[in-house]
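Review box. Two proteins, two foldings.
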Amino acid sequence: MAALICGSLAFDTIMTFEGRFAEQILPEQLHILNVSFLVPSLRRDFGGCAGNIAYSLKLLGGNPLPMATLGNDGQDYLARLQSLGISTAHITQVGDTYTAQAMIMTDRDNNQITAFHPGAMMQAHTQRIEPALLGTLGVALGIVAPDGRDAMLEHAAQFKAADVPFVFDPGQGLPMFSSEELAGFVEQASWVAVNDYEAKMLCERTGWSLEQLSRKVRGLVVTLGGQGCEVWVDGEKTHIAPATPSSIVDPTGCGDAWRGALLFGLEKGWSLARCATLGNRLGALKIAARGPQNYHLDFALPA
């Protein structure tokens, strides 16, 4: 079986600021903000939510099918995915724009400042999820991860119309949507995955508590970084303890690694709590490596 992963493909330029943002930004001067950060370390990585989730799922032995767009500079990304054995059949190159680009700066406390250029991602809605195609590919479930606004709306509706269960993962795209649109996503989805900040925003925008949200889907997960995660099923919350990383190097892509584990477990019919336990392990593994797609399994998968 396969998982259709709708989301972005992007190049990540990752910079490390050795100080703390809080020490450089004066709250009383925000109206005339003018700051500069010295970043001794800089690297360019393959990223984007669809690429990162696909990497994680493939690492676990799953069959990811990313559905995404690349720009005219995306040939290297296509070659990388193919070298990993990840299908590129549902990736389109847009000739008159760049691939999406994320410029990410991380401070010593793992706080991040990100600038994002969407580029080809804004054409992602041109790709459609067709029921006949899903059956041919053996797609068991999907995910709507951060992507172009129109693509997220249309792909959620297309998953629902095809009767394919999917995870709604709004991520940094959450502020793009109205209260009514966010409620629509939840009502179409089978699962919702958010971090603690996104969970608060989702509750504020929809007017639903986490307990209420969890009753509208099969399950809700709220990741808490170093504190593990919360799993909500039918209004009941369970805290899943974190896994301890060997070191803390780079948080970029930890949430996507977690979501790859979620898809892996859901496809196998695991409970949400069991999926979350594996997700915490993948997140801990990823944070010990630089870049979102440069970690490797160092443990045996449970049967």
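Next protein.
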Amino acid sequence: MITIIDYGIGNLRSIEKAFETVGVTVRRTDDPHAITDAERLVLPGVGAFRACIDEIRERDLEAPIHDAIDRDIPFLGVCVGMQLLFETGYEKGEHEGLGVLPGHVAHFRAVDAEMPEDLSVPHMGWNTIEPTRSHPILEGLGETPHVYFVHSYHPVAAAASDVLATTTYGHSFPSVVQRRNVFGVQFHPEKSQAAGLGLLENFATLPIEADEPAA
């Protein structure tokens, strides 16, 4: 059973349908008790960092998220849901994230002021991910799978050991992160065809004891 955290941001039906396509039972909820007791959690996200984290806090979901993570529940953040895992987001100001992973989230051109002008932001469309190490969540996806991105901001991870894969768009950035039971993907697996479905299926069947502890 996959529990998708529904905090009123975006259309969740697409990722719900993607899990159903690979044979996984899904429920959506904003009930703090259901989140605390979930078997596996997914935090999706679209739009602005501040709007997303504000909704999570207004619905009293931050503590249940941390409780589940602390109990080693497998947890997957998608797009802005991945970004919220970090300490700080710099989108129209400075905003405190969930602080699960050390680092911050910044605009492409804030990270690299010399990024070529002919590379448009947002980074939108197909690109590859390049694993930095092997992990069961990436099994069967190929050496450099193509996945679908839509984002103007990306994480700047403080710990290299948290970066499971990178993508290059003007410069390299973390596109998959992992620390113990916590995972995040900057791309949209629900829009990434076979590679995205494969990753979601891997997450849904991932035994927690297979995760590698952070260095």
